[in-house]
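Ticket #4471: structure export looks truncated?
Reporter: QA, pipeline team
Priority: medium

Steps to reproduce: submit the single chain below to the structure queue and open the exported record.
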Amino acid sequence: MMKKNKIGLLFTFLVVLFNAQTKIKETGNDNQRAEKHLQEVKIVGKPRKGLSKKDNPAYKILQGIWKNKERNDIRSLDSYDYRKYTSVNIGLSNIDSVFAKKILGNDYTAIRKASTEDPSEEKMTLPIFLNELSQRVYGYKNKEKTDTEGERKSGLNEMGRGFGVERFSQVFTTVDPYEDDIKILDKTFVSPLSTRGYGVYNYILKDSITEGDEKIYTIHFFPKKPEDLLFQGYFKTVDKVFALKEILMKTTKQINMSLVRDLSIEKYYSEIIDGIYLPEKSLYEGNFTLFSKKKDEMGAYVKKEVNDYEYQLNHPKDPLFYDEKVIQTRSDQFEKNDEYWQKSLGLSKNTQETLKIIEELKSNKKVNSITSAINVLSTGYLDIFKGVQTGSLWNTISNNDVEGLRLRMGFRTFKTEDDKFRLSFYGAYGTRDHKFKYGIEGIYLLSSQPRIVVGASHLRDNLQLSGKLLEPNNLLPKTKTSFITRGKNYYLSNVMRNTINFDLALDKNLHFNISGIHQQIESADPGSFSMNYTLPGTSNIYNKLTDFSTNLTLVYTPGRQVYGYGAEQKFGKLPYTTILLKYTKGYKGILNSDFNYNKLQLSVEKNFFLSNFGVLNASVEMGKTFNSVPISLLSPVPANQSITVVPKTFSLLNYYNFVTDTYIMGNLEHHFNGFILNRIPLLNKLKLRSFIFYRFAYGSISQNNIDINRSSVIYKAPEDKIYSEYGFGIENIGFGNIRPFRVDFIWRSKIGEVFGETPPNFGVRFGFSPGF
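Actual output as written to the record:
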């Protein structure tokens, strides 16, 4: 039983760390409602049949809210200024007392007394991380800036490593009930105040009471389909101005989400000036479990409290003031001492208790062993001695026809996530070719403001150039390896590459990258795969390419979350738009380089949230090589010969089936988030979700490139007919509350024989993505 409890805690927290991905930007103020837990959402009886709009008095009140929506938005004011205090508490919940005694030992009595008000409770909660933030928000004519005045973090030593806690601490997205859609995690919920709400919610006007000069309406709401991404709860609104006084929302037990037991949101508003009601306190709670959604299931939690106070409205400052921004360049830049926090008017009443428990836990060896294990599993790296880690554990074993069983192990320097210098090395050995391959990379944070990172790498390894995707730089490849593959894979290239890279952050999500690359490329197995070519106008045949090139790359990623202040940064998993423009110039004669050439590439990725209809992930990539070059510098349509899903590759193509110098590729994948399968009786009990996809490639290859080709690949491009793959899939497959698997059913357009073989017309692929 002890072992099961420990494993359950470990993996619940681990999986949620992998997937927590969105940022909260909310508001509130400390008052008598400060509690350890959110209020229970008490629901009146759900109606068997919803009333028509004409017969339901709640609908008229909703119309009033919609009409006054802009008036009740703080951004509609000419100017505003207020303080904001935010606290985020992360921990483990529903820990059995017997198990807790085993872990905590002599610390059990003191920690239990501090963590629970009721000594008769059999379960207890352990906080392991607390983050506090004191900010001041200024707004003026659609401009808004936020100045951080103080920050305090306290947690178990291992929990900050690998950026996991930062992701987990930002479970909720910006929650504005007045908006039609609310984004939480990677999902879109329909707000109960949405103009589309009457189509998915049932509403009941519970009562109307008079408080002073105000008449307050209380309306309860229920999802028509409890499996959908909707809430149940109630809200109170003020007559005449139709502004919110408070709203309580909570997910249903039947909701089609993995890892989530429940999500709760409370928001309270107060009248700041005549008829203007603004947020005063916001309380959020997310509870996550691995095996079931039962209330007593052991798991992890995130609690967030945000207090807004000291509002000043319509007192604008100099317009230039709103353009001044303080850029954070160090993790401790805004740290303040305890004396500062004791004077904070917004301080949560629970903070001191939480800090006391965390301090008690820091010295507990068994608790630290659990958090260390979580860190290893979430990052893939294991400490071997101070400042050095080995990994990644997830890329240790793979397989191909040239190397046979490929064994790989690496090392990296790591003191903290904010190291200014990071050195990485890996070595690999093939049991068939009996050759050692390796790569080494170093990056250094030259400047924090502006952010400038320089890097260099040296690589001698076998790479699959026909599965390569467009990347912003040419340091060590970040591709994942596969153990189980289909078909034959002799099409590996042996690459010796030296790279120097310079990255300038014009903004945290706007980067300009310059790199210089010198490389030699030849076939890793010349007997099975030839990469031979001739130079233009000559008849001599060469089997090795020497290339020197420079790359100018512009990367724009609006909305991307960025973590860390060292040389290496991590990015949140919340979908964001990515625009990448890359120009490559090859120079003949420099360092014995064989070719002059120019290549231009552009890729755009964007996610379209379509409310309760799901999310559409779309991407397009195009490029052109303007001069004659051999196969290693052309643009093969990226193939995938593994049995797993690899984004933006073609699963029913073999390597080098298509080779182009001018191309355009696109990918559309729409995830319904249960919108269809939730409506099918019996099937809706399985919590499955459906998705559809379509991807295409179109391109050409010039006669000049065909003329210099002497490789074993006969060039063929999808220029007569667009090549496409399409199909559908089922995701959210698993057991209990963890459902990380997906299955894709794929068909393709006809392409005939390639190299004497016909690629498969149909395939089934499997994916692993432990999402919500």
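Status: closed, not a bug. The export was complete when the record was re-opened. Leaving a note from the reviewer for reference: The longest helix spans residues 2-19.
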